[in-house]
Write a structure and sequence with these properties.
The protein is mostly beta strands. It has a single domain, classed as Porin (Beta Barrel). The chain contains five helices and 17 strands. It has a 16-stranded antiparallel β-barrel. Helix 1 packs across helix 2. The longest helix has 9 residues. It is globular, with a radius of gyration of 21 Å.
Length: 404
């Protein structure tokens, strides 16, 4: 990876320390993501979250600082086969989007106790080891990582649109544990790991903190036009706890030609022994307590992205999704949702990304929007990502990286 302006300044302007950073390939980079949205939801009588359950523009008709991000990392050298190499990534995120990343037991009071709109999180804190001799290469990650599955990612430059799908808002986000990615051959890659659970730390006290397994497999066709990536992203006994989601997911990606590309994701999630109210052992929930159904609560969703490259620095995106939160255990409303969006991603230069978007979503058996006043919602929004510290990112998708 070519060094960005901040890394170059540190390498060349800090004397011996800069020389040490350069010799060890340690880089620093980041960005700012600012958004504006206009919404048909205006009711703020019950708080400012009138766009809910839309993600991430939770508050309607506002300018927001979504993310101010700094990375410090060392990427292991994977372009060799003669030695084991190491790496790490430390991330720092401040802004509205922190609330979708919080892990119980790790600087979580700002959200769980105080419900602050703006806050800080560190969604990636891990060390890594690259072993070139295991099949075609193995990466081992230890620490906090972003959950493997999904087309989307929490961090703005890696997403296809400025907003997020409902599907992505309510499934697992981060995990603390150990994970391995092994490339068996040019077509097959296997990922497996053990964690403390979804969005909980190993040291927190909650039934959601359970030894949790992950097994994901990716197949890529010989012509590199098709990819299937799926498996159980998180599984254990499924006992009701903080975000103890049993998450089974699959994504199919297909490249039609040099301009058209599509990706489709489907998942099913559930928990056992659920209750519809806070308890001593589960006083809070990531998402919601179920509003109907028995002790087995579940939801499923399907999502499709279709992209068309308009030019070398611009592409057009269409997103359609369907979510069935049948027991209300994720959004607090027992209803089906559909969401349809169109957007453009434009890079006027290598340091700025602009993403305008139009979005409509609808709930079929409830009125969750506008603080409980509407069954549907239309939003027009745009975000601008300023890559003021780093080289520009391209979109990365499911299966390409454990840490997105």
């Amino acid at each position: 990876m070519a060094p960005g302006p901040l890394t170059q300044a540190l390498w060349e302007g800090t004397g011996d320390a800069g020389g040490w950073l350069k010799a060890n390939r340690i880089q620093a980079y980041g960005w700012l993501d600012v958004s504006l949205n206009e919404s048909t939801s205006h009711n703020t009588s019950r708080g400012l979250s009138n766009n809910f359950p839309e993600a991430y523009d939770l508050r309607g008709n506002r300018i927001e600082l979504n993310q101010a991000v700094l990375y410090i990392e060392r990427a292991p050298d994977e372009c060799q086969t003669d030695h084991i190499d190491r790496g790490f990534r430390l991330s720092a995120v401040y802004g509205l989007d922190y609330r979708y990343m919080v892990s119980k037991g790790f600087i979580d009071a700002q959200l769980i106790k105080h419900s602050h709109y703006m806050g800080f999180d560190a969604p990636m804190l891990y060390g890594s080891i690259y072993v070139p001799w295991v099949f075609m290469g193995m990466n081992i990650y230890l620490g906090r990582v972003i959950s493997l599955a999904d087309i989307e990612a929490q961090l703005a430059p890696n997403n296809l649109m400025s907003s997020h799908s409902l599907l992505y808002e309510i499934d697992p986000y981060t995990q603390w544990g150990g994970f391995a990615t092994v490339k068996l051959d040019p077509m097959w890659t296997v990922q497996a790991g053990l964690s403390a659970g979804n969005d909980v730390t190993p040291w927190t006290s909650d039934p959601g903190r359970r030894l949790t397994g992950t097994v994901m497999v990716q197949w890529i066709s010989k012509d590199n036009k098709d990819s299937i990536y799926g498996g159980p992203n998180s599984f254990n006994d499924g006992h009701f706890g903080y975000n103890n989601l049993q998450h089974y997911v699959a994504t199919w990606s297909h490249k039609f030609d040099e301009k058209w590309w599509t990706a489709t994701e489907i998942w099913y999630m559930y928990m056992n022994h659920a209750v519809d109210h806070p308890t001593d052992s589960v006083p809070t929930q990531n998402g919601a307590f179920p509003v109907k159904g028995g002790q087995y609560v579940a939801e499923w969703a399907i999502l499709n992205y279709a992209m068309y490259r308009i030019s070398a620095n611009t592409f057009f995106t269409v997103r359609n999704e369907y979510l069935d939160d049948r027991d209300g255990s994720r959004t607090g409303f027992a209803t089906r949702y559909s969401e349809h969006s169109i957007g453009i991603t434009w890079w006027p230069n290598s340091l700025i990304t602009i993403r305008p978007e139009l979005r409509y979503e609808h709930a079929y058996e409830a009125k969750p929007y506008d603080n409980g006043g509407r069954a549907g919602q239309f939003t027009a929004q745009v975000d601008v990502v300023f890559h003021f510290l780093n080289r520009a990112f391209g979109a990365r998708h499911s299966g390409n990286s454990l840490t997105r």
